[in-house]
Amino acid sequence: MNREETLEGIKDKFKDDIIEVFDKSATRVYIEIKPEALVRVANYAFYDLEARFGIASGVDTREHIEILYHFIQEEVNLIISLRVKLPKDKPEIDSLAPSFEAANWIEREIHELLGVNFRGHPDLRRLLLPDAWPQGVYPLRRDYKEWDKKAIRDRGV
Amino acid sequence: MAKTIVPIGPYHPLQEEPEFFTLTVDGEKIIDIDVRVGYNHRGIEKLSESKTFDQSTFVIERICGICSTSHPFAYTRAVEDIIPMEVPERAKFIRTIIAEGERIHSHLLWLGLAGHFLGYNTVYMWAWKLREEILDAMEILSGNRQNYAMFKPGGVRRDIKAEDIPVVLKKIDSIIPTAVMLKKAVIDDPVLHARTKGVGILTKENAINYSALGPTARASGVARDLRKNCPYGAYDRMEWDMIVTENGDVFDKVVVRVLELFESIKIIKWCLNNLPKGEIDAKIKDIPPGEGIGHIEAPRGETFHYVRSDGTNRPARHKVRAPTFMNLPTYKATILGQTLSDATIILAAIDPCYCCTERVAVRNIKGKKLLHGEDLVRMSQQKTELLRKKMGVK
Amino acid sequence: MSIKLNALLKSPWVFHLSTGSCNNCDIEILDCLTPRFDIERFGMLLAGSIRHADVLLVTGSCNRQSVERLKKLYEQVPKPCLVVAIGECALSRGMFIHSYNCPEPLDKIIPVDVYIPGCPPKPEAIIAGVVKLIGKIKNKK
Question: For chain C, N or C: smaller number of CB within 10 Å?
Answer without folding.
Answer: C
